[in-house]
Amino acid sequence: MLLLETKSLCKKFGGLSALADVNFKIPQGEIISLIGPNGAGKTTFFNLLTGVTEPSSGDIFFSGERINGFSPHWITARGIARTFQNIRLFPNMTALENGMIGRHCRTRNEVLSALFRTPAFYREESEIEKSAKEILSFVGLLPMGNVLAKNLPYGDQRKLEIARALLTEPRLLLLDEPTAGMNPSESEELILLIEKIRQQGISILLIEHQMRVVMGISDHIIVLDHGIKIAEGDPHQIQTNPDVIEAYLGGHHA
Amino acid sequence: MRKVTSTTVLVVNLLILSLYPLFVQGTSLSYTLRLGGIVGLYVLLALGLNITLGLVGLFDLGFMAFYAIGAYSASIFSIGGWNFWYSTLFSILITVTLRLLLGAPVLRLRGDYLAIVTLGFGEITRLILNNWDSVTNGPKGLPRVGESISGIKIWNFELTENIHYYYLILAVVFLAMIISKRLENSRIGRAWTAVREDETAAELSGIPVTRVKMLGFGASSVFAAIAGSLFIHWEKFVTPESFTFWESVLVVSMIVLGGIGSMSGVISGAILISGIPLLLQVLLGGDFISYRYLIFGITLVLIILFRPQGLVPSQRQALELGEKDSK
């Protein structure tokens, strides 16, 4: 079943065409990698999917429903969650609170129930706390729960971002260079985590530069260059595709 | 452990503040009750602004405008013959409505724009109060000759002395503290903090940022309206001069000096900034007044230099982690 589909998606910034006519499909339950040289339009693509920017033309369908033109929080509630290339946590909140924020779109307590501390308020608060702890322990961060996000080591901050995204109960998780700046053993740990997330039935779309990571976990790879999709296929097909080699290494290669 | 100590501190402070009038009433120190009431109103305003500035992180430089709107609408209702409760209720409604009307267009903008717009709104409000003679009686203030603002009557007890208002304001401040705390430690309060920390990340984590900001913006004006209504029912007189830009700056300073987003910090800031000059002015017989702003400025600079997070910095609540379940 198709989870996400884009139809001739275009994004122009002034005269610059950041994405041109991108058709893209993500089946349920797969890990898809989006690769391409710097400036290829990968992050722009993420921004379009999550509603940060609107496409200049074309449409995005998420489990059959058109989602372009809606606000990011609405799209998150529909089931697309993401992390960021430059970590964007809530630095002065604890790790646990960062996770609890992810529950916002799945809970409904408003001002009045908070003021009068109704039984429903306590029930929901403890439910929020419980699921946040569960996911924190899932990514291995529970012992750090009361540490302010800004005081966490870099690798843990990455994991916390993923935990926060997972707490919104996504069906599709977008990870923007999750292993950027990590050493090999940290990346290894993260790959295991991504596999574990997939086993929960969550599809993953990954932007990644480390080819070892990409080739290791992807079911399917899509290559962008200058805003155009130049290739797609399984890891083996991509590794031998001449267009991809040219995009990465320049023309007249070998 | 921490929780126990902070509750103890609160109870002790409350006891001191509620017993204090019994000792000074009727002595030469009884004027301090009036000062205490005024400080209490500032604490109320600071708690209100702390929601927008401290929790949601919206830089609001025109908060006094809403204190003014609350005070003036309550005066108009009171002159029209309504009692304290009704005029307060309707002044809250008017204040919140105007606040949201201002918020709707500007809360979509970020950072500095909001500061400029709220600053402008504060000045516009004061100018309107000064010039809309038929409603506000201009610079002469309300009530006009021959009219009067009624006092506060709770059941059959009419509040007449400063000491009555002192206790009323103390009770309202205590209530406001509970409300602040409950809002802060809730789903909405967390969302406010998240918006302050990173608006984009908050929106993408599923928080409807504009709506959440409007909630905070509106909630803070409730505090301002209540303070305004208490003020005019006590003072029984109001002019536009009570609501200058300087007053807005003072309330912002209380929050920055005390510790942005921290309730005990904000209260200490409000007490220091509003109380000490009032007290010194009385003690030094007016001579001090010319140095007041100088000392005030130097203090602010020193605090920002040496304690940028404020006197009592805000702290996040630690939750029980239940380590045993982690494996």
**Strand-and-helix sequence of chain B, N→C?**
HHHHHHEEHHHHHHH
Sequence stretches where pLDDT stays below 50 over 5 or more residues of chain B: none
| Quaternary structure classification | heterodimer
By DSSP, the count of extended strands of chain B is 2
For the record, what CATH class of the domain at 2-79 and 170-249 in chain A applies?
Answer: Alpha Beta
Mass-distribution shape of chain B: globular
Full CATH superfamily name of the domain at 2-79 and 170-249 in chain A:
P-loop containing nucleotide triphosphate hydrolases
What is the CATH topology assignment of the domain at 2-79 and 170-249 in chain A?
A: Rossmann fold
> First CA to last CA of chain B: what distance?
27 Å
Total of helices of chain B: 13
Percent strand of chain A: 15-25%
**Which structural class is indicated by helix and strand composition of chain B?**
mainly alpha
Structural class by helix and strand composition of chain A = alpha/beta
